[in-house]
Design a protein that fits this description.
The chain is α/β, with parallel strands linked by helices. Helix content is about 40%, strand content about 25%. The protein contains 8 helices and 7 strands. The longest helix has 22 residues. Bound molecules: S-adenosylmethionine. The site of S-adenosylmethionine has 18 residues, from helix 1 and helix 4.
Amino acid sequence: MSSLALMRFLEAAPHRYDAGMRLITLGRVTLLHRLLAEVSVPRPGAHVLEIGCGTGAVTEQLVARGAVVTALDQNPEMLELARKRLREAPNGSLTFLESTAAEIDGLPEAGFDVVVASLCFSEMSESERAYVLKAAFQRLRPEGILAVADEVSPERPWQRVLHALLRLPQAGLAWLLAGRLTKPLRDLAEEVRAAGFEVRAEQRWLLGSLTVLQAERPG
Ligand SMILES: C[S@@+](CC[C@H](N)C(=O)[O-])C[C@H]1O[C@@H](n2cnc3c(N)ncnc32)[C@H](O)[C@@H]1O
């Protein structure tokens, strides 16, 4: 995956989002979604809150693994595609909410076993992310899991330089086409800790620019 800089541009045309993401990531986004779903469903029947579900690619895998999912997104067109994708989900296994991530503060406290977010935190401002992470912490039961997949700044300086160079052409194109960019997260683990979580595991690929991070609300 060279870069996700074009992601925001693809969101402007939701019906082309899935195909576009597969193209710019050379199919690797599918692996990312699968891995995230694998670490997000501790057991069938687990209650999962998904933030920024988009067209429902991760949602579909969470439901297939037997989770009871509440999936939200602020973009009604993305949600419509997710609803279509999941139209055959078993009764009672899935609720969609058209909502901003910050509005999870209205959901029941300690109501979920897992909170999941794929490629969504990098689209938020730092202050919004801090608010949402704290709200996610409160939505989880003690020992509940936060699982996040996103684009991050690589840890090693040479990786950061190479990643920035690889990202530049797509970032320029995204800026010209959409006038906005996503920003790789500088220190996701630290932000997650600041919200009260304990980081349990982190897997990185592609010059360390993509992460799947798992954290726990301490018991
Ligand atoms: C790049 S897409 C990722 C979609 C999906 N999670 C995936 O991995 O394919 C980001 C999604 O997050 C949603 N999103 C971004 N910021 C959000 C916010 N503050 N509240 C709710 N949804 C948000 C966007 O509308 C979009 O559907």
